[in-house]
Amino acid sequence: MKKKILLSTVIILVLIVAILLFKKFSTNKEVIKILETAKVKRGDIQEIIDATAIVKTQVNAYVKVGARATGKIQKMNVDVGDYVKKGQLIAVIDQRELKKEVDRLQAELNRARANLKEIEKVYPLKIKEAEENLKKAKANFEYALWNFKREKELLKREFTTRQDYEKADMNLKTAKADLDFAKASLNRLKEEYKVKLKEAESNLEAVKESLEKAKIKLSYTEIYSPIDGIVANITAREGETVVAGLQVANLITILNPDRLEVRIYVDETDIGKVKEKQKVI
Fold it and tell me: Are residues 187 and 250 in the same domain?
């Protein structure tokens, strides 16, 4: 009897526990939250193949920009990794002495031009004046010669005095000397004009040539990029001194990105998925 009562009690307790557990799990059921919805539609399925790649440069991919001037680097406008465009100023070497030389030669050129202009203006006027003096000297000589012949003829006929004859003779000699001097002066001026003009023109051309050379040397202090590309290497920095001839070949190295090629190694299991003109990321 006692065993039946004990068994009944255990069964009742088990039922109570079962009921409590059922209520607990049935009331605390987790609610599903909808985070995002989308309409189902057709689309492309992309498959990405991971592969190892090596970037190599083609022939003439690198352009080495050198320095043709000696001096301290005044400005370095680029750094490794910077993209530069063709004709872009990338570096400047100290220009002070060369600029002074250019300014000096420019002033000398202005003086040479002014001197040539002065010669071309003054000497023709001097020559013209000398030609007028020669005309006057010729006229005086011709009159003196006529007067001398007249006095000589008159003296033969005793219509004049010896004193007047000798005076006419003296005037003729003076007029002849003046005429010779006027001719010599004119010839001297013409020859001097030719010489001075040639010297001035030669001097002007020499100064022009020197100035052009100085400007070319000055242009060497400004280094421009010869191509579009990326700065790959710089051998000297701002403030450092470069010597033309020693660092002329590789002051700045620029890489032409159009001269690069990529070699990709694809696994044999994926090779069938690769096609010509596929996009490479």
Answer: no
What's the CA gap between 172 and 167, in Å, rounded? 9
Q: What is the CATH number of the domain that holds 115?
A: 1.10.287.620
Q: Is position 38 within any domain?
A: no
* Cβ burial, residue 157 (10 Å; 0-12/13-18/19+): exposed
Give pTM, 2 decimals.
0.65
Does residue 22 fall inside a structural domain? Answer: no
**What is the C-alpha separation between 123 and 200, in angstroms, rounded?**
13
pLDDT by residue (tens digit) across 78-115? 999 999 999 999 999 999 999 999 999 999 999 999 99
Question: In the numeric block, which tokens belong to residue 160?
Answer: 């004049």
For residue 224, the Cα-to-chain-centroid distance in whole angstroms is 7
Residues 177 and 209 in one domain: yes
Residues 206-262 have pLDDT tens digits of: 999 999 999 999 999 999 999 999 999 998 899 888 887 665 557 899 998 888 777
**Domain co-membership, 180 together with 89:** no
CA 177, 179, 181, 187 dihedral sign is negative
The reply to whether 105 falls in a domain is yes
238 CB-near residues (< 8 Å, 6+ apart): 73, 74, 75, 76
**Angle 162-219/96-156 helices, nearest 10 degrees?**
170
> Cα-atom radius of gyration of the chain, to the nearest Å?
54
**Same domain as 88, residue 203:** no
The CATH number that applies at residue 234 is 2.40.50.100
Residues 87, 24: Cα–Cα separation, whole Å = 81
Residues 110 and 203 in one domain: yes
d(CA 253, CA 97): 27
Residues 165 and 152 sit within 8 Å (Cβ to Cβ): yes
